[in-house]
Input
Amino acid sequence: MEHVKVILLQRVAKLGNIGDVVSVKPGFARNYLLPKKIALRATNENKKYFEEKRTQIEATNAETRTEALRIAEKINNFSIALVRQASEKGHLYGSVTCRDIVAAVREAGINVNAGQINLNAPIKQVGVYNLSINLHPEVSVPIKLSVAKSESEAQQQIVEEPSAVA
Output
């Protein structure tokens, strides 16, 4: 399959930085990069447009990065406790998903969305998990998530913190 060349308008992990011309699969460009305005097709017109707007794009990126760093300072060493029903062996009846984590983080007064939570698979076991919130392509903040049967057990898990999973 042939690749498509695009100009990145923001940093994308494992792909490139602002202004890089990279080759990506057509579906990734068409379904993700272009609709989210993360990239432009690498045509001569778009290259000229990017060079004209480069300082503005970099300034906007620096501004959003500064805002993300400010939020990161606020949530440094952040921990969440979720209480769920579980079996005697610690298996949850159901699972903890990004949506549950987002709700808990928003209760603490921090505005995030599910796409910013770095969770590979739903959590199905009681325990302490180390996760990260991606506030900006260049700013990621670690958080601790304690999933337990009761509030007191959750607080105790965070204090003790046995070997964390994730």
User: Anything to note?
Assistant: Confidence is low (pLDDT under 50) at residues 162-166. The beta strands are 4-8, 21-24, 39-41, 78-83, 91-96, 117-118, 123-125, 127-136, 139-148. The radius of gyration is 20 Å. The helical segments are 26-33, 44-74, 98-107, 151-160.
